[in-house]
Amino acid sequence: xxxxxxxxxxxxxxxLALTFLYLPIGTLIAYSFNESKMVTVWTDFSLxxxxxxxxxxxxxxxxxxxxxxxxxTSCASVVIGTLAAFVLVRVRYFRGExxxxxxxTAPMVLPEVITGLALLLLFVTLGNVIPFFADRGIIAIWIAxxxxxxxxxxVVIRSRxxxxxxxxxxxxxxxxxxxxxxxxxxxxxxxxPAEVAALLLSFTMSMDDLVITSFIAGPDSTTLPxxxxxSVRRGxxxxxxxxxxxxxxxxxxxxxxxxxxxxKKQKRKAxxxxxxxxxxxxxxxxxxxxxx
Amino acid sequence: MSTGFSANMTFIxxxxxxxxxxxLAPQQHQNTWRDYALIFLPYVxxxxxxxxxxxxxxxxxxxxxxIAIPPYSPLVTFEEGAxxxxxxxxxxxxxxxxxxxxYIRSYLKSLQVAAFSTLFCLIIGYPIAWALASSKxxxxxxxxxxxxxxxxxxxxxxxxxxxxxxxxxxxxxxILMVLGIIDEPIQMLQTDFAVYVGIxxxxxxxxxxxxxxxxxxxxxxxxxxxxxxxxxxxxxxFSTLVPQTKSGIVAGSMLVFIPxxxxxxxxxxxGGKSSxxxxxxxxxEFFNNRDWPLASAVxxxxxxxxxxxxxxxxxxxxxxxxxxxAGK
Amino acid sequence: METPVDINARNTASQQPAAQPQTAEAIINQPVKxxxxxxxxxxxKPTPEQQNRKPILEIKHITKRFETFTAVNDVDLTLYQGxxxxxxxxxxxxxxxxxxxxxxxxxxxxxxxxxxxxxxxxVPPYKRPVNMMFQSYALFPYMTVKQNIAFGLKQSKLxxxxxxxxxxxxxxxxHMEEYVDRKPFQLSGGQRQRVALARSLAKEPRVLLLxxxxxxxxxxxxEQMRLELVDIINSVGVTCLMVTHDQEEAMTxxxxxxxxxxxxxxxxxxxxEIYENPNCRFCAEFxxxxxxxxxxxxxxxxxxxxxxxxxxxxxxxxxxDIDLADGMPLTIALRPEKIYISHLTPQEETNWCxxxxxxxxxxxxISIYYVRLTDGRIVSATLPNVDRxxxxxxxxxxxxxxxxxxxxxxxxxx
Lengths: 292, 328, 414
What we know:
The complex is a heterotrimer.
Chain A: H1 8-32, H2 48-54, H3 57-90, H4 97-109, H5 112-129, H6 138-162, H7 166-174, H8 179-208, H9 211-216, H10 224-234, H11 238-291
Chain B: H1 10-15, H2 21-24, H3 33-61, E1 76-79, E2 82-85, H4 90-97, H5 102-133, H6 137-152, H7 155-166, H8 171-178, H9 192-216, H10 221-228, H11 233-244, H12 246-261, H13 265-270, H14 278-288, H15 292-327
Antiparallel strand pairs in B: 1-2
Helix pairs in contact in B: 3-15, 4-15, 5-9, 5-12, 7-9, 9-12, 10-11, 12-15, 14-15
Chain C: H1 24-29, E1 55-65, E2 70-80, E3 84-88, H2 95-103, E4 110-115, E5 118-119, E6 130-133, H3 145-155, H4 160-173, H5 189-202, E7 207-211, H6 219-236, E8 239-244, H7 247-253, E9 256-261, E10 264-269, H8 271-276, H9 281-286, E11 291-300, E12 305-308, E13 316-318, E14 330-334, E15 340-342, E16 352-362, E17 366-373, E18 378-384, E19 399-403, E20 410-412
Parallel strand pairs in C: 3-8, 3-9, 6-7, 7-8
Antiparallel strand pairs in C: 1-2, 1-4, 4-5, 9-10, 11-12, 11-14, 12-13, 14-20, 15-19, 16-17, 16-19, 17-18
Helix pairs in contact in C: 3-4, 3-5, 4-5
């Protein structure tokens, strides 16, 4: 690796980049404690927008719907993603595999307006046959979210899966573990970090999706991004600042823990390597003593 | 794809690496019914909820709008016991022969906005990716998290934050006035400038992450060799760093270009009347004019435009993969 | 365990008359004649058949075809109770495929595998009484040493106390008691191998399969672990089938070796037999180094065969008859260590030739002489460096005579 000296150029770049990335968010947080209704004029510190936020039934309901859909979506798309990843990595080439790969990856590269429109038209068409789909409620949104989230979960889980040594699974099988046991005792613990990442990823994507959901959602199911979008379109609203602050807070907590676990893992790996090295040293010493 | 979330986007690149058949086949046993059972759920799900919708879009794009539920003419009708298929190509011809040129103009505008946004992302993202890749490992973790964290917060909220900043009495205008650079507030919202800022802000991580992973793999001794042979910094950059990170550049560019082309939310909230991008047209045709067939035709046309960048992306990844396989 | 075949067998004390002085000069100028016919090699372990051992694994007409090529082609093999058998071949020869078919990871295209007389084909890997030690060891990364060893026992649902007992026994067997609670990536390569061995022995398999057992170890450690592995395997008494591309490894560890090429067995035999009595040109060249001469037969009777070879002034003489059909090619294989180099013209009328020393490779224990014969061919001959400061040895551009014993020549017909 190249020189790690903190050169001036690097520091300047990082400072500028972080300013660009965090200035808007920081402003929102600051204004969320502003007493004035005028979003941009600072008058006094106040928590009144937080009170307003928690007393806003529409927002609370939207948060509930969004959380529900996100929870259901993340579970289902992790299951589908795991299955698809298993198929792509471990199952022998099968007829229609290239189509399978295309289906599993295309939702990631298509503009959301197209995916949204396509899914809506599907539900309308299905609604003519099966009335269940006609009202396009939470289940329809869930299906749409699972469809595009599965593509992402598949990629995340698959990239971890690919790195697994197949001989470890064979060893388990050789020692008497059947295929199901191998999956739960050997594969699952190994891909667990990816499963968690995929779960969080699909949860966040589902929580955050606006365009596809706007196409699908019937009049009774308004998700949080839809609500924010419509209120933002009407004008700036201080309650949204308070909401944004809470979202940023939750995300930072998660990010902090992600960073913490990443750092811990690296430290643990270094410690393991050190242990292995000392074991090797001991072994070499024993080897020499054995010879003379 | 305006989801504001982008875990490690290198994952997306990996998705396009086709699996090498030869490498795995001899290792595996024959497919059993169990394997097919595993294939069944994801496959059927994707056929019903992904392939089928596109066939429906295509079908509807060939009908005309009607005041009915659903608001379009049936493609197949039964009259006097005989099946009739009526294909309407009006939607497609309308797109190209519209007297105002609305559609053509919005396509061109979308291409322009997407291309320039990609370029800006590349210019801004490359130094950031370089700064990340060349930091100490511990620092790198922190910076990496800091760079992607904003994209884990709500997408709409981030756009909204820029609305607050760029208002006439927003922070940016205030600062510029205090500094005496301008005498009166500049109009920033409802301009193309705001759209560019919004797109660059939201899609920057999509550019930085592939570049970052490409830069991590760079053989820095080549740069030293170039310097050693008397190459100037700028020339060294283009002759050693750029070729080595080409895959990251292409991947990042496609990951910005493709979603930016169909972007709806950002031009809607930040852009003005001049920022009529194709995503907005599609939305308006569908929601405001309830012209489903025309919206479908717009979507199909957009897909056709996107086929080329998607193929470039795919081919590039394939070549990478082949290189990897050859190295083994 | 039999000591490995000495590559310089001729020069070891056991094979020379006691009075023979051990100097290089003596070896050069006073060649010793020994007589034994091919097939009767002293020091060779009795074959399993001779010992009346029980066959445990019978592989019959096994063929494995992949889409484009045949990995294993109609192979037969019988393994006897308690023996260590090595499949030796270069990569892609089909040895790993054969091993994987025994473990159950590949299904043969045709043929049958009988273990204790019961058909194994169709039995899934997790129900076969056969365990494998993988090349990369394939230890479960999230489990401790103890959990790794106990994994197989847990699958057979043994009572807990019994599992504990057996794991302890295994840990003692491989001397890993200190490291029970370590995870695999906290261990050195040699320790990982011990754990892998303990894990595959824990279930007391009928047959133990070893896939390149030393493949992941450093060179120095390898030599040590070979003998240790053999000790452990012998102390347990398990029948063992190993796959390797390393001939030294196969010869050190195995009782019998099969040389495999292009999916077929070329020769099966003890280490000494395959070295001293290769049955074809490929085997002769694959194991050790060898000089190959294309020849034709002059005459042959019960006690003597005379063979003409290229520009040799003198014919090659063999002390047995050669049954050669008309037009069949005949080659003579001659190991470098069985050739004597001398400045003196040999007295015999057969079995020598002359040339000029073109190059000498000094390897420390031996020197390899590359001698260009009068007809331009290069022959290699080795000389042990017994004496530290010996003078008068042949050197570059010396005119030398190469001679050998009649029984050193191996006549090969294909």
